[in-house]
Specification:
flat, four-stranded antiparallel β-sheet, single chain, 4 strands
C-alpha cells in the first residue's frame, strides 16, 4: 500500500492510498480520504490490457431534450 500525502495543506483531500499487487505491480485499489475523513474507494478487478475497443465507445451523442452547458457560459467563469 502506497500512501500519498500533500506536502502543503489541501482543502479537498488529506491523502490518497494506492494498493498494488506485490507480484505483478498491477493497480488493485485507490482510496481517497478528504478533509472530513470521508473515504472514497475504487477497486479494480478483471483488468484487461491493450484490448481492441470499438471507436463508437468514445463518441457521445447528446440525447434530445437535453441542454448542454458550456463552461464559458457559466456566470463568473474567468476563462
Amino acid at each position: 500500500m502506497l500512501r500519498l500525502m500533500p506536502t502543503t495543506h489541501h482543502e479537498e483531500f488529506e491523502d490518497v492510498e494506492i494498493e498494488v499487487s506485490p507480484d505483478s505491480g498491477e493497480l488493485l485499489r485507490v482510496i481517497l480520504i478528504d478533509a472530513m475523513q470521508n473515504r472514497t474507494e475504487f477497486s479494480f478487478e478483471n483488468l484487461r490490457r491493450n484490448i481492441d475497443l470499438p471507436e463508437s465507445l468514445f463518441r457521445f451523442t447528446v440525447p434530445s431534450g437535453v441542454d448542454v452547458v458550456v463552461q464559458s457560459d457559466v456566470p463568473g467563469d474567468a476563462r
